[in-house]
Amino acid sequence: MTLLIEITMNHIKNFRTYIAITRGVFLFFFSISASLFAQTSIPDSLITSYLQQHNNFQTSADVSGNYTLDLNVEAIIRHIQHTGDTTYLGAVDRFFSLRNFQFSKAVPYEKSPFCDVYFAYFQLKKDSSFVVPYINESRRMMRNLVRTPEGAICIRHGEGDYMLIDYVQDYIARMAKTGWLTGDTLFYREAVNQLKLYRSILQYPDSKLYSQGRGWLEDKNQISPSAW
To answer: What is the number of alpha carbons within 13 Å of residue 205 lying toward its C-beta?
Structure first.
């Protein structure tokens, strides 16, 4: 959990992004406690406010955005799952309908970085036609990603490929999910291996904190000078 929080916080680049991510993370964790303590007023207020800001997902423009939008929609899905409250299910369904999402068609992994809102929707709706395309896309991701000489996966950014701790958290989560879907330990081994590689390359030995990545500086072999 500590590593996940570190990974998430690194990608915060401005105050607006901070607010979007904080809202999503807070809503996700509060929804869990709400199911235990029946305190739903705060998450309801957050969700209502967020949906109003996005016109309750009425048009295609309302569902167009970057990963921060997907993170918040995933948080709403988790709220529905943990509380059983379907008040916001219509808005969630419209979100995916306006994106022309079909369970039977794979969403390219390149279009969903840093989170997996489509998998969350699959878990909510339990449409089994999602499974095979998702597995095939995971295999394509594993096969096509550029890797460092050590074997660590890289994210494509512009014309280059770089190690990025934000990206590996999404990758290892996807590999674990695919392992769960298939029962194939290959995916679990890949997830564990990437975690070990990133730790060996990016973790500072004394503080145990992590660099954000490698390859982003003029010296491509130097890790980025961050510590979190």
So the answer is: 2
User: Could you tell me which of 121, 115, 112, 123 has the C-alpha nearest to residue 180?
Assistant: 123
Are 175 and 215 in contact, with CB atoms under 8 Å apart? no
Q: Residue 166 corresponds to which tokens in the numbers above?
A: 């934000």
CB 134 within 8 A of CB 187: no
Taken as a whole, the chain contains a residue count of 228
CA–CA dist 209, 226 (Å, integer): 9
Q: Quick one: the chain helix, strand, coil %, rounded to 5?
A: 60, 5, 30
Q: For the segment 170-200, what is each residue's pLDDT rounded down to a tens digit?
A: 999 999 999 999 999 999 999 999 999 999 9
Residue 74 carries which DSSP code?
H
pTM over 0.85: no
